[in-house]
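ok so heres the complex, two chains, lmk if somethin looks off
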Amino acid sequence: MNQSPFGTRRTRELVPYLGVAPGLLIFLLFTFLPACAVLVFSFTNLSGVPNVGWEFVGWANYERFLFSGESAANLQVIERTLVFMAVLVVVQNAVALAVALLLNRGIRGASFFRAVVFLPVILGVTVIGLVWSLVLDPVGGPVSGVLNSVGIDSALLGDTTWGFAIIMAIQLWSAVGYSMIIFLSGLQSIPAELIEAATADGANLWQRFRHVTWPLLAPAVNANVLIGIIGSLKTYQLIWVLAGGRDDTVTLPLAVFLRSFGLSSDPTPDQGFASTLSVVQFILIACIALPTMAILRRREVQL
Amino acid sequence: MTSSPAYRTRTAVAAAQRTLKAAHYLVVALIALVYLFPLFYLANTSLKESADYFTDPVALVTQPTLHNFTAAWEMGRFGGYVVNSVIYTAAAAGLGTLLSLLLAYPIARNYVRGSSVLYGLFVAALFLPLSLPIQFQLMLALGLYNTQIGYVLLMTSELGIGPFLIANYLRGVPQELDQAAAVDGCGYFRFVFQFVLPMSRPALVTVFVLHAIGVWNDIVFATIYLTDPGSLPITRGLFAFYGEYGNDWALLSAAVMIVALPLIVVYIVLQRYIVGGATAGALKS
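and the predicted structre for the whole thing:
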């Protein structure tokens, strides 16, 4: 520790703590401690109904999650969560990288297109949700009209088979812009001479990408993959706005929210069980994020 | 006259490049269409009379009317919602950025005990489990449920990578100035606000933008913690309007336009800061 040089001999050591205190307090109180307490309350039957007591129930919530009548449905929720994450991490980044590479090739109006693709990040979930509900209106909407003309009749967002896939597509639409600008700034940090040298050596488009652009893009790729993993497990607002928490669209984080406040098909708030779902999700993140980080880090070091 | 093989190769290459360029523009135009069509369709719908929408929803508007806009403005409380959202966003993101700075500076300079532990704490926070049910119990216990101040405090506490980003930035700022200012009798907080704050402006803009996007877009916390119609932010207010008039798309589209248009204007004006801020935030994390 260094001593702060400010103030008198008596105050100089204490003053920085005064600055740290409010931020640390608010962070510990509202974010950190509740997150730790989730683990404790996952072993209780806390209901969330005001003035109803709670007690410890051991592993009951975990047994209910894994070995009860609803466990098949719960495993489907996990499966859906993993699919959602895979789409957000792999497909979203692939699309974002493709768009970034395209916009980086000296296209006229590139900054306009960049702004257009980033726009949904600003519009927010409610506007996005309502705009797409309008476009995908199964009664007379334009998409439905096109599908009807080729003989397909679908409830689109309301469809129990395709609804979740459509939601993922909208999520992709709304978040590609964010990954794209990260790739774009990564691309712009690659020295043009390197690409020119590779071209002079006779490398074709694919070889230049594979051996020059891709390795040098490692920091942007790593940032995007991590943001995707963390984000996909915290992104549930849009799913809720688009489908209202219907059973066949629920992912783990959405389930935590719905179960906490009795908004799912089961209208009784069940905050102990919701805490258990949150812990399961935490374990899932850890199992995926930690090895991924290790692999990404190694790739970055090798350069 | 026959052209040389070299000339023919060159024209072939040039032709291929032209085709490639045309393909680029085609793909870019398609992407723009996927992004702009929903907004054009929304605008088109919002300018129709409800009766016209029911006869043919997809048709281009022939007699544009602003009737839906005036009706939606009167029926919703959009003015109030927008004001609420602006206040919540400015307060929570502003306070959050300030607190992040006050945390980050002594951590970066190692002026407090356990600086590296604190630094690690804010990184670890990114991976913490969702704590919705426990936060709810906490808010109830503190008497902050359904209060605007409680909502702002909660949104402020979502510091995310803020302290981490600013600390990283400040590590690149030389420390000699601290000593010099202290010798001249400058106090700690005066130094932070008068010197550190302007020096770390790029990092602060990033942190503010990231935090503000999060607060502005929140609908879940607003749903849980704000029940009084007068205190709802725009996300929640618009969603409530949808619940009430969900079958009248012409009216609803006008309401969405009322919310989206000012955002688009702000975005166009501040694009450089918003996009730049978001990029810097992601790459340094």
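quick notes: The radius of gyration of chain B is 26 Å. thats all i got rn
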